[in-house]
Amino acid sequence: MAERKLFGTDGVRGKSNVFPMTGEVALKLGIVTGHLFRNMNKGKDRHQIIIGKDTRLSGYMIENALSAGFTSVGMDVILVGPLPTPAMAMLTRSMRVDLGVMISASHNPFYDNGIKMFAPDGYKLSDETEKQIEDMLDGDLSALFVPSEQIGRITRLESARGRYVEFVKSAFPKDLRLNGLKVVVDCANGASYKVAPSVLWELGAEVIPMGVSPNGCNINDNCGALYPQAMCQEVVRQGADIGISLDGDADRVIISDEKGRIVDGDEIIALIALDWQERGMLKDNTVVTTVMSNLGLEKFLASNGIKMLRSAVGDRYVVEMMQQKGLNLGGEQSGHIVLGAYATTGDGIMSALELLSFMVRKNKKASEITSLFTPYPQVLKNVRLETREKVQEVLANPLVEAAIAKAEAELNGTGRILIRKSGTEPLARVMAEGEDESLINKITDDICREIQKNAG
Predict the structure, then answer these.
(1) Is residue 351 flagged as an active site residue?
(2) Which one of 67, 104, 106, 192 is the catalytic residue?
(3) Of 311, 346, 370, which one is at a domain's C-terminal end?
(4) What is the pLDDT of residues 242-264, one digit of tens each?
(5) Residues 83 and 215 reside in one and the same domain
(6) Is the same domain home to 32 and 123?
(7) DSSP-assigned letters across all residues of 169-235
(8) Residue 392 structural domain
(9) Three-state DSSP class for 257?
(10) Residue 390 half-sphere exposure toward CB, CA atoms < 13 A
(11) Last residue of a domain, one of 262, 290, 318
(12) What is the pTM of this model?
């Protein structure tokens, strides 16, 4: 993996108006990336970039700065406004543009923002391409500007939302309808606040929307996939059949059954894997998850003849492994589910529709199809440090390494420990899972204390 400093596991991300999430950096990224992709596609008559965003206040600033950069190197810019990240992946590929851009910090609070980029094939940029972009940022950018008559134009695509709605609906079986189902959908005051309710209603459901009043500052604010409790309560209160909770850019989903029980990404993967296996759709009887997925899922899949491969954390790494192995189903415990039969990235709405179609085909309740395995107790704790570089330094400290080794000895093969740095924030993430919940709580606390002690 190429070493990058600006790009993390999901593009560039940080606090708005603080490096690297400033208008200045966005402008430079537009100049460099536009120049690079324009040169990659020299044979084309038109060079176009498509830009979408979620509902963060800072999205206007980043959108304008990127647009200025792209047009200065001769790229035409197409703006689509608030749309989910998977919509941008789809539009990039279907419209044959040179590059797709999504301005979003996904599940983070409103004061953060990020820039994700998609190559013409609809897949996120490789580590190598991101490293190439970073290396160009320190050069003389004015040398990349085009003559005045070649400056790009900026237009707005009004049909973008409708295109994505039809794309998502096309993955739903044409002989099925959601008639008679009452569905709560929490859009996290984010990018899906219009498209998610529309998709469900057009397929026949009675829709109870939540989190559909964005004001620029309330995205992911005690709502959405990271805070599904209100959605679960609404499902029970309304007597709904299912609840769907999306994050700010709708590339992840958490489900509630009709009893208000939370269904995470691991459980969603288990159901889809079994369904696709039964229908002959699951390639090589194998799914890709990450190192965070529960041991209970792995054992359950194995008992059904399904192999589970683990990638690094981040849906981009799930997708890379799926591509390398020729597989078509992968995802993360957090709710990123990649349905390779239909899409190139995680799509929360499409993943929810897979569950809904199963409910309709089998005439079963959500609770009857989702409790497929018993998860091992799992504890995840974060230790926030000053910088991401500091996290890396502390995790390499011999005293911290010794604490981790001691914890592994205490587990004695009855579970596992995973220590990693966040790809987007200055966090050391400490995860342990195993048969003994009190033991994994103890060893997680021990490791966190050692990290804090050596952060000095």
Answers:
(1) no
(2) 106
(3) 370
(4) 999 999 999 999 999 999 999 99
(5) no
(6) yes
(7) HHTS-TT---TT-EEEEE-TTSTTTTHHHHHHHHTT-EEEEES----SS-TTSS-STT-THHHHHHH
(8) 378-453
(9) coil
(10) 13
(11) 262
(12) 0.90
